[in-house]
């Protein structure tokens, strides 16, 4: 997987790509947004991928003392 991190004043962006998926994660001080575009083969697993990501993030956020406001969007689109 190839990743690029772009640090900004108000947010950081991680752009990622590999065979079958391209996307970006935007992280601010109190929220994040995930947008992923799945290729044809991975698109068949969209629901499973989305639920795994949400479950993992729920676990991570629940372990913190203060749960920040989150905005998530897993947009799985076929290329």
Note the beta-strand portion: 35-45%
Q: Residue share in helices?
A: 25-40%
Average residue-wise pLDDT: 85
Radius of gyration: 13 Å
Q: Main β-sheet: number of strands, strand sense, barrel status?
A: 4 strands, antiparallel
The coarse silhouette is flat
**Main sheet: which strands, in order across?**
1-2-3-4
Order of helices and strands: EEEEHH
End-to-end separation in angstroms reads 18 Å
Q: What is the tally of helical segments? A: 2
Number of DSSP strand runs: 4
Contiguous low-pLDDT stretches (5 residues minimum) are 74-79
Supply the helix-strand structural class.
Answer: alpha+beta
Give the domain tally: 1
Overall description:
The structure is a single chain. The chain is an alpha+beta fold. It has one domain. Helices cover 27% and strands 37% of the residues. It contains 2 helices and 4 strands. It has a 4-stranded antiparallel β-sheet with strand order 1-2-3-4.
């Amino acid at each position: 997987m190839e990743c690029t991190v772009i640090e900004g004043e108000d947010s950081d962006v991680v752009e990622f790509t590999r065979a079958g998926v391209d996307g970006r994660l935007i992280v601010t001080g109190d929220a994040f947004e995930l947008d992923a575009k799945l290729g044809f083969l991975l698109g068949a697993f969209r629901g499973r991928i989305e639920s795994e990501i949400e479950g993992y993030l729920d676990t991570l956020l629940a372990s913190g003392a203060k749960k920040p406001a989150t905005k998530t969007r897993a947009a799985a689109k076929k290329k």
